[in-house]
Design a protein that fits this description.
Layout lengths: L2 H13 L41 H16 L3 E4 L10 E5 L6 H9 L1 H4 L3 E6 L5 H9 L3 E3 L6 H12 L3 E3 L18 H12 L6 E9 L10 E5 L3 E2 L8 H23 L14
Parallel strand pairs: 1-7, 2-5, 2-6, 3-4, 3-5
Antiparallel strand pairs: 6-7, 6-8
Helix pairs in contact: 1-2, 1-5, 2-3, 6-7, 7-8
């Protein structure tokens, strides 16, 4: 009875994984997002990019993930949950090692831990057909990695302006060699745009290191998730978007490299205890 919703939900969530985001806007351009609105069906949307947090599907997805992931994986070791902001705009910037990352991030940082739901920026191909229907209602929204639209970028900024937790994979793709690869500058530009549009907004970037005991995770694979200290975006606004983004990107890369050292070996043999409220 529970097998069908488990398969559907996990197939959908696993698709929310690959992000190759590089903004092609001018160096000093700042976007000014539109205000939020609510569609007729009662589900909360924020812009014409239309993503929702379905009042019934989202809790179901988190419930299934919360109970299924510990059964599928061996040990799930999580450190640094105290670094997750309880409120305010946050960009989660994780390393990307497998499609499972997009299931484990909500498990480690989402509603059962913080009471907050994650919003994923996904490639436009992941938002087609039935799969796209699920992705949008689980808070995902599409971006064309080759030609990111103003509408999509505004939607991402709006999410931050409304204090949401947004997930962007700064490496751009999946890398299974456990090395931190060069980061795309898009995540820094987006964060700086959001912070500049509303002074004292308080956007924070949260680096997250994810590692598996096997490059291609399978049943019984061990997982380590290390959550680093937040990076305050306001500290990087000095007038030049290009230079500010370059410095922010470099510091984020260093933070992820430091976390990767903690990822290299999994030694503990107990599950991370996840609060139920």
């Amino acid at each position: 009875m529970y097998l069908i919703p488990i398969l559907i939900t996990f197939s959908t969530l696993q698709s929310v994984a690959t992000l190759i985001m590089e903004l092609h806007s001018s160096e000093d351009q700042i976007y000014h997002p539109t205000l939020a609105h609510t569609p007729a069906n009662g589900e909360t949307a924020i812009s014409t990019s239309t993503s929702w947090l379905s009042p019934w599907l989202t809790p179901l997805a988190y419930f299934l993930g919360h109970h299924f992931l510990p059964l599928f994986f061996g040990q799930i070791r999580i450190t640094g949950q105290e670094n997750i902001p309880a409120k305010g705009p946050v960009i989660l910037a994780p390393t990307h090692r497998a499609r499972w990352d997009s299931l484990l991030l909500p498990y480690a940082t989402g509603r059962f831990v913080t009471g907050r739901d994650l919003r994923f920026m996904v490639t436009i191909s992941e938002c087609q057909g039935l799969q796209g229907w699920f992705v949008r209602r689980l808070g995902g929204f599409p971006v064309d990695p080759q030609r990111p639209s103003i509408t999509t970028l505004r939607h991402a900024v709006e999410l931050l302006q409304h204090g949401e937790m947004l997930v962007i994979y700064p490496e751009g793709g999946i890398f299974r060699d456990r090395e931190v690869h060069p980061l795309k500058s898009g995540i820094a530009r987006l964060a700086l745009t959001a912070e500049s549009s509303h002074p004292d907004l308080g956007v924070k970037i949260l680096p997250v290191g994810i590692n598996y005991s096997h490059p291609y995770p399978e049943w019984g694979t061990d997982v380590s998730i290390h959550i680093g200290s937040t990076i305050k975006v306001a500290d990087y606004i000095n007038g030049s978007v290009k230079q500010d983004a370059k410095r922010l990107t470099a510091d984020l890369a260093n933070a992820l490299k430091e976390l990767s050292h903690h990822e290299s070996t999994i030694t503990a043999h107990t599950f991370a205890e996840m609060p139920n409220s």
